[in-house]
Write a structure and sequence with these properties.
Structural class of chain A: alpha/beta
Largest sheet of chain A: 6 strands, mixed
CATH topology of chain A: Rossmann fold
Number of domains of chain B: 1
Radius of gyration of chain B: 19 Å
Structural class of chain B: mainly alpha
Largest sheet of chain B: none
Helix content of chain B: over 70%
Number of helices of chain B: 12
Strand order of the largest sheet of chain A: 5-6-7-3-8-9
Oligomer: heterodimer
Largest interface: A-B, 34 and 26 residues
Number of strands of chain A: 9
Order of helices and strands of chain B: HHHHHHHHHHHH
Shape of chain A: globular
Number of domains of chain A: 1
Helix content of chain A: 25-40%
Chain lengths: 235, 246
């Protein structure tokens, strides 16, 4: 079972409620788009899912288990978060080797994911020389390192040029076709309209919609009007 | 656990900054001993020889900063997210860092003690003195210095996990080193002051900067410093376990 399941999830930071009773399932073999305005709780939901933030209530499960219970987490789920950073003086290949070491992933896999992300030529350069788009590609390479059955990506298209965006779309579709579970948080609706099978829309920390993209229309404009209606409507 | 340790070692060996920092230790030792001799230190006095060799312990200020950057440096570059994604059992990450940094700190201390011995031997030869390796305390002084380098690296790891902003953590450590402990020591009186971390480290590394203070015996200073390292490490593990990484 390789699905991602969020059940009754809530999180408060002090007096601020970031996520309130959110539930959804990201099914196996599908791309699930997690949509919402800035500050809607998307990133917090993903951080709870990945064990970085403690939920106040509810569960976020990866293949039925909490992230902290996974013995070799990168082999089960690959993640790229917006705040993921790099040491500016460390080479791209070394960055990946550090991560590979921690999860017992063989060194040759580093070269494979560098190739997959189109970074082979830049592998030996320190990350401080990388453009934003190259950093995104390195983040995606890191997410793919353990050849995971599930991927959780936060704004992966951020900083990618048109070629990179097209590459990302094809890669995600291919990975889903191989049966992997993919969750992509984004507010680039056009990309989601072209990539996702399922969408989850959150606003002000609350779930507004969860279901197949076809239920709200598969064009950019249909998704946009549904998004705007769902995220501005009074609860 | 071994894989986490291997990953931590690779983090260290793939960037330059920590090694430049650690290289400052032996340089400080060479400069310090040279200053001691040039300012009129008597090479025929066994006390001067002990004071020269005890510079090894002073290099621990660099292993302390080195240790601080173990966790605080990861927050600075936001690499902590990837670290916890690889190893969601955070206690393992802190334990691996303590192991790797304490070991590396001890190696840096070993280099500093070698630099102290070589520099002292060179100056003593230059000034017609006779280096007495067999003198009581020569090896204990060097060993204590190495132990101080090791202990302060571990204390730094704990401090950097508690204060995750590296500039703030280093400022707190240096302020404590330079003024706060001295003032606290005066307020407490010398009977209590000797239990404070840097007085304990003076006892351990026999540097005795504050000649008036009543220090603990060397082994007592060592135990005290081990205790401080254990307290900081425990606090680091427990504050890190459940803290949200946003």
């Amino acid at each position: 079972m390789a699905e991602i399941e969020v059940r009754g999830l809530s999180k408060t930071f002090g007096r601020v409620t970031a996520v309130r009773d959110v539930s959804f399932t990201a099914p196996e073999g599908k791309v699930t788009g997690l949509l919402g305005p800035n500050g809607s709780g998307k990133t917090t939901t993903l951080r709870i899912l990945l064990g970085l933030v403690q939920a106040t209530a509810g569960d976020a499960l990866i293949g039925g288990a909490r992230y902290e219970r996974l013995a070799r987490p990168r082999r089960v789920v690959g993640a790229m978060l917006e705040s993921t950073g790099f040491h500016p003086g460390r080479r791209a290949d070394d960055h990946l080797r550090v991560l590979a070491d921690a999860d017992g992933i063989p060194a040759r896999r580093v070269d494979e994911v560098l190739d997959l992300a189109g970074l082979t030529g830049a592998a030996r350069r320190p990350v401080r020389q990388f453009s934003l788009g190259m950093r995104q590609r390195l983040g995606l390479a890191a997410a793919m390192l353990g050849d995971p059955q599930m991927l959780v990506l936060d704004e992966p298209a951020n900083g990618l040029d048109p070629g990179g965006t097209a590459w990302l779309r094809t890669t995600l579709r291919d990975l889903a076709r191989e049966g992997r579970t993919i969750v992509v948080a984004s507010h680039v609706l056009g990309e989601i309209a072209r990539t996702a099978d399922h969408v989850v829309i959150v606003s002000a920390g609350e779930l507004r919609f969860a279901g197949p993209l076809s239920d709200i229309g598969q064009t950019h404009s249909a998704l946009e009007s549904a998004f705007l209606t769902l995220t501005t409507a009074p609860n | 656990m071994l894989s986490v340790i291997r990953s931590e070692f690779r983090k260290l060996t793939t960037v330059r900054a920590p090694w430049l920092l650690l290289a400052a230790g032996p340089l400080l030792v060479v400069a310090g001993i040279t200053g001691l001799v040039e300012s009129g230190g008597n090479v025929h006095d066994p006390g001067t020889q002990r004071a020269a060799l005890a510079h090894t312990g002073l290099a621990a200020v660099f292993t302390l900063i080195f240790g601080i950057l173990a966790v605080a440096g990861e927050y600075r570059h936001s690499t902590i997210t990837d670290t916890y994604l690889s190893s969601p059992r955070r206690g393992q990450v802190i334990t691996a860092k303590l192991t790797v940094y304490a070991l590396t700190g001890a190696c840096a201390g070993l280099l500093s003690s070698g630099a102290a011995l070589a520099t002292t031997a060179a100056w003593w030869a230059d000034r017609g003195g006779h280096l007495q390796l067999s003198a009581a305390g020569t090896w204990l002084t060097l060993l204590g210095g190495v132990a101080a380098n090791c202990a302060f690296a571990a204390i730094g790891v704990g401090l950097g996990a508690l204060i995750r902003n590296p500039a703030a953590a280093i400022a707190v450590a240096l302020a404590w080193f330079a003024v706060i402990e001295g003032i606290t020591g005066q307020l407490l009186g010398s009977a209590l002051a000797r239990w404070l971390p840097f007085y304990a480290s003076e006892a351990l590394s026999r540097s005795n900067l504050s000649a008036t203070a009543r220090l603990l015996p060397q082994w007592g200073g060592g135990l005290m410093l081990l205790g401080y390292a254990a307290v900081f490490a425990t606090a680091a593990v427990f504050t890190t376990l459940r803290r949200d990484v946003t």
